[in-house]
Every structure is written in C-alpha cells, then in structure tokens.
C-alpha cells in the first residue's frame, strides 16, 4: 500500500496543477501559474524515487538530466514567433513517451494472468493515441517551421487509406485486449504513427495551430490512461487536466475561427480548408510614407492598434509601445484590439505585448472593443491580416467565412503596415486593403515603426 505521506504529496502536487491552470488563465497571474506547475512537476518526480525501489536508477537520472538540459536550452533560445512549434514538440514528446511506457507495460502482461480487460484497453489506447500525437505533432512542427509545405497535403485515395488504417488499428486494439502480445502492440504503434501523419497532412494554413491544441488534448488523455495502467493517481489527474484543457482550447480556437473541429481536420478533402496561397496581389492600393501616417496618428483623438503575427516576426513590440506612449502623451486615446487567435495561438499577442511592458488595461478583447471601431479616427494594423478580413462576414465561399473578426473596416481611417501584398496565413486576399479608407505603409514593421515614432515626435 502506498504510504500516507506519499499520497499527501501527490495530492498537494495535483492541487498545485489545478492552481497553475487557474493562474495561466490570466496575463497577470500566468507567470506564477507556470512556475507553480513546474515546481509541482519536479516535486512529483522526486516523490517517485521514494515511493518504490526503482531499478536502473542511473540511466533514469541520466535521461532526466539530458531531458532537462534539452528542454531548458530549447525554451531559452526559442523565439516568440516559434512558440507554437515548441508546444508541438512538447506535445509529441509527451505522447511518444506515454506510448513507450504502455508498450513496456504490455510486455509485462504475460507475467500476470489476471490482467483486467479495462487495463488492457487503457494500454492499447495509450499506444495508439500516443503514436498519433507523436507523429502528428512532428508534422505540425515541420509545417510551422516551414520544413515542409504549409499547405494541405492531399492525394487521391487519402480518405480510403486513412479509413483503412483506422479500422486495422481498431482491430489490433481488440486483438491485444483479448490476447495481449508485444509484437501486436508494436504494429499498433506503427499504425498510430501512420494515422498521426495522415491526420495532419490535409491540414494547412491557419488551421495548423488548432490541430496542435487537439494533439495536446490527445497527449493529456494518453498520460491519463497510462496513469490508470501504472496505478499512479497523480498521472491520472495531471493527464485529465491537460486533456480537458486542451479539448476546451481546441473548441474555443475552432469557434474563434468560425469552424468546427471536424471541418478543420477534413475540410481540405472537400476543398474547404485554408489553403495557404502565396501569390501576391497586383491590384492597385493607396500607400503613404511614415511622415504622412505620423500626421494621421498624431492629430487623431482615438486610435486602435491591431497587432498580429507580423509584429512578433519583426520584434517591433517595444517600438510600438513607445509610439503609443508618445501618442498618449499628446492626449490621444489608444487601445490594443486583441483577436482570440491573434498571432498563431491564443494569448500569443498578450505575451508579446507584456514582454514590452504594455499595461494590461490597454489590451482589449475582441468582444469588448468591436463596438468602438466606429468611433476610432485611425486603426493601425501591424502585422495582422486575416483577423480584420471582411471576407469572413461577406464572402460565403471564403475559407475563413464565419470567423469572428475585428471590425476594423468600420473605422474612419485604416492604416496597414505590411511588407508586401502577399496574403495572410489563411491564404486569401483581404478586401480591406483596397478600401478607399485604407492606406498602406510598406516596409519592415520595426523599421517603419521607428520612422513613425520619429515622425510623431517631430510634430
């Protein structure tokens, strides 16, 4: 029987995980929430060494040290724009580890004649879904890192191949539950890997971050299942928390994109996914220089900033904050309008702007600020595109049709800061660029922002 003090330790760690999730729900408490979760994870890991006499302690400790060093190095070096890729890698590693543990447990089944069918079912679930999460996460990483095309990859017969592989995987699961066998488990793991690749290949463009969140939920569920197999309550609790939060995040992201999760995964097979086109438009637009835009901003009474992924790429957030400070000093009312999926994941822009010491009070969520665009003299769009594209409201055939957007088109003047006329992540043209009220300021966002700042200061 597990000693009481160990059970209390696990209970304390589980409570810390719940409090960590609560902390991560707000920008003010996110840092402490993250720290609390990390401390609880370390504490829970240490407890395992006192719970039972572990074999192979030296290689276990060596593996922990290598993993810790790799994780710390990767986390410190990763750029803000690469956070989704980092999340994808962590998802994949978690799912793969759970699958490997389940395979090892399956190998032990022959020593126990009384293995319950539910334990066997939890084991095969962990093997199959862990394999899907591992392989799928690697493909999403490759897409976001542009190691492969970011467009959906489909080929004739893909639905048949996917469906066939899924049926075979189910049959292998039943086989193992009825008659546990390691080599059948290995084949099941291979089918899980194949299903992970086939599941993610048809996803592209703006849908990839949603799939990362879905795979995160898969990883959480596999960890919970492995906790049941290992009879470890803390793993069961932690995995359930990750699975539930990942599922909710997936649903919220899909809702923010105006799409269902099923449509996100399989929309490309019906031609309905974000295709990630890369052709730049040659339609005429109205453009201006930094000095002209500086005059617009300096003499406005109400300005709304719409930040996007391009701001993070250019690392212009500090200069933007300085510009807003100068405008506020001139009596201009300025807010940041935050779309739920601005950047590439929820909270991406909040973290980016918090890094630049932007006050939380200036960050206004979409539902709260959409009614204020009509009163805005100028909307400054910095590195965003799809989240202000009117096609989401006006063009039924558009891939983003139905996605809630920021009502930037209702402002009196719109200024887009862009490098070129290439489309956004969804790969479709933005009609707002050709609106008579719209002015484009071409160039690198950081360089243009510096010129804007100097222009406003000179007035």
Automatic annotation (TrEMBL):
Residues 7-454 form the NADP transhydrogenase beta-like domain. It comes from the Bacteria. Gene3D superfamilies: TPP-binding domain (3.40.50.1220). It is an enzyme of class 7 (translocase). It catalyses: NAD(+) + NADPH + H(+)(in) = NADH + NADP(+) + H(+)(out). SUPFAM superfamilies: DHS-like NAD/FAD-binding domain. Belongs to the PNT beta subunit family. The chain crosses the membrane at residues 6-25, 32-50, 56-74, 86-106, 118-141, 153-177, 183-201, 208-228, 234-254. Keywords: Cell inner membrane, Cell membrane, Membrane, NAD, NADP, Translocase, Transmembrane, Transmembrane helix. The keyword rRNA processing does not apply. It is a multi-pass membrane protein. GO terms for molecular function: NADP binding; proton-translocating NAD(P)+ transhydrogenase activity. This is NAD(P) transhydrogenase subunit beta. The keyword Cell membrane applies. It holds the Pfam family PNTB. It comes from Solicola gregarius. One of its GO terms (cellular component) is plasma membrane.
